[in-house]
Amino acid sequence: MSTASCRTTRPQRPHTVTDSDTTLALSTPPDDIDTVQDFVQRVLEPHSDIVDIDRFAFETALVELASNVIQHAAAGTGITCVLSIHADDHELSARISDTGTAGAVTLSGPVLPDDLAESGRGLALIQMLVDSVHFERVGDRNVWTISRARHPLP
Fold first, then answer.
1. Cα(100)–Cα(79) distance, integer angstroms
2. Maximum distance among all Cα pairs of the chain, rounded to whole angstroms
3. Nearest in space to 147 (alpha carbons), one of 111, 96, 110, 100
């Protein structure tokens, strides 16, 4: 299935600050997950050699991670994030650094909550979609990195 068929068309929204073609600085509010999704699609669009499953998995993981950061780290007050994406012949990777509150994050492998749980699936989903997820607190910032190895074109 082509990932293009899964995308919705939204008007392009200007983002707060762009340090380069592959780095986005944003503040929430007013920026939100749509800003992140538009940025991810724009950065990956020129890379037509990324197979659909790698593109879809990486985009989904990154948007889910950004959504979790915006929802949980902001603690209702808003945060500033810097998102960087790197794509080369072998790997897709991203780094999100945010000014959110320090969280008690434990990365022990993808474990889904029971079927009736109302939350707790985001981090497990991210871990299932990428090859590595790393979190650390550096000074006053939360820093997340994810990566996914690329499959060769058929």
1. 6
2. 46
3. 96
Helix (H, G, I), strand (E, B) or coil at 6: helix
Beta bridge partners of 28: 79
Residues 6+ apart with CB under 8 A from 88: none
Q: Report residue 22 as tokens.
A: 């592959």
Give percent of the chain with pLDDT exceeding 70: 73
- pLDDT for residue 47: 92
Q: Taking a C-beta distance cutoff of 8 angstroms, is the pair 46, 18 a contact?
A: no
Q: How far is CA 120 from CA 29, 42, 75, 116, in A?
A: 24, 29, 17, 11
pLDDT for position 56:
96
Per-residue confidence (pLDDT) for residue 12, from 0 to 100: 39
Count CA atoms closer than 13 A to 110's CA, side-chain side.
Answer: 14
Model's pTM, two decimal places? 0.78
